[in-house]
Amino acid sequence: MKKSLINNSKRIVLKIGSSLLIKKNEFNHEWFKSFIEDILFIRKKKIEVLIVASGAVSLGCHYLDLKKKKLRIFEKQACAACGQVILMNNFKKAFQKNKLIPAQILLTYSDTEDRRKSLNSRETILELLRCGAIPIVNENDSVATDELKFGDNDRLAARVAQIIGADNLILLSDVDGLFTDNPKKNNKAQLIPEVTDINDRIFKMASGDTNIYGTGGMYTKLEAAEIASKSGCNTIICKGNQKNPIQIFLKHKIGTQFFSKEKGGSSFKKWLAGTIKVMGDLVIDEGAVRAVIKGASILPSGIQKISGKFFKGDIISIKDLEGKEIGKGVTYYHSDELKIIKGKKTSEIKILLGYDGRDEIVHRDYLTLNE
Ligand code: GLU
Question: Atom 6 in ligand 1: which residue has the minimum CA distance?
Fold first, then answer.
């Protein structure tokens, strides 16, 4: 690895997992102290910092004297409520000693996936950064419903990075970075220093057995890097369970850096590209794929198949005939209406649906294509 992305950064999201913050069920003060040195080091370079920190459930579990493995959802949520207080209390104490200002932001999936709420969160976080505070983000585990949950803070951190327009996302892990294979099982596995294209081959390296690291595992870290990349944010995965992990990374450059190719683009499209969950799929024919790549909207004539139940305004995945996702978009029609007008001419919409709807199923302004 030749150059590091950190030095040219303006705004960094730093994700630290439970395995770093907690040791023997307690807050790991020793590691945290050295991590704060890293934060001071980054801030000296006039880089804004936001931290995504987890550990609420584990800390709360210990506090309430419950066994983590056997917890039911509501028990976990109760643990998170207690643990989050312990987490922030420790942040506050350590921050105060170093004249740093902590601010707590708890987000649920619905906050990031709803455009209006995501913009609202953005404004709050940017204001905190303007005031010189360091936002500490976690998922609002106590109220999040299980079906609609990030579950891992890697993807939450990537979504936050997109929402606040960060240029770097650092995922501090308990491994050095992405390896060609599971380094614990294959001693020939090699660390990949740089990735410019997060494709199936890259995902394969983190599948199966390799998915044993950290809280979210390497696979979710790659998903996070992919979300960040779509919004023009680079990602670094490096070893966090050591003293001064960031400064060590800058010195030895051991880790994996993911370079985003995305430059420019509207903030709405970046948000759309990073959406975690889609409500359905739209399969379009080859001609329509060619047209959207050239910048056209999706018309009924190009639609081959519709799956899932979705409403006007929902985000859907756009796929080619082979089932490969080519992008995401906001649908103007309900899935049941699309089943009626699929493959038809725009001039037939009025007769088929009984009202004069838009020609475009997904307008190009509400469509984003994968890299
Ligand atoms: N939000 C969870 C917590 O604070 C952790 C999620 C994760 O480990 O990535 O316990």
Answer: 152
Q: Which amino acid is at 122?
A: R
Domain edges within the chain? 6-270, 278-369
Is the beta carbon of 56 within 6 A of some atom in ligand 1?
yes
For residues 163 and 111, the answer to whether their CB atoms sit within 8 Å is no
Between the CA of 8 and the centroid of ligand 1 the distance, in Å, is 29
pLDDT score for 207 = 66
Residue 210 has pLDDT above 80, yes or no: no
Count of C-beta atoms within a 10 Å radius of residue 370:
13
Strands 26-27 and 101-107: unpaired
| CATH architecture of structural domain 6-270 | 3-Layer(aba) Sandwich (3.40)
Instruction: Give yes or no for residue 337 having a pLDDT over 50.
Output: yes
pTM for the structure as a whole: 0.89
Indicate if ligand 1 lies below 6 Å from the C-beta of 216.
yes
Antiparallel, parallel or unpaired: β 133-139 and 101-107: parallel
Q: Strands 281-284 and 303-307, how do they pair?
A: antiparallel
Distance CA 300, CA 341 (A): 6
- pLDDT reported for residue 182: 78
Return the CATH class of domain 278-369. mainly beta
User: Mean pLDDT across the chain, nearest whole number?
Assistant: 92
